[in-house]
Specification:
Layout: H1 4-14, H2 19-25, H3 30-37, H4 45-55, H5 59-64, H6 76-85, H7 89-99, H8 103-118
Length: about 120
Amino acid sequence: MSTIGERITLVRTDAGLTMTAFAERLNLSKSSISLAESDKSKLSKRVILDICEKFNVNPEWLETGEGKPYNDAKTPVLKLLKAEYKLDDMDIEMIENYLQLKPIERQVFKDYISKIKER
């Protein structure tokens, strides 16, 4: 990824979001995201930090392309789920892997689970 616009696009598509949905999560307009993704406009430092916080992105990677794209996947939310539902490490790994699936892959998985429940 050579430009910040390409990295923003990757974050958005990894999250399975349209430009409109991504913009809404950041309280921005779709055109702001479009301009940023095409490197025609720069996002403010505050918006960059919002992206990093909301999508678990490494700020250094987003701004410079250096380092790993995402922070440790064991976010506070997963830690809370682990404690609340007494999940083990395998449960957390399954959740993390599910979250990394593309939307179409998630649908295949959900269809499979639905078929198992019907038995």
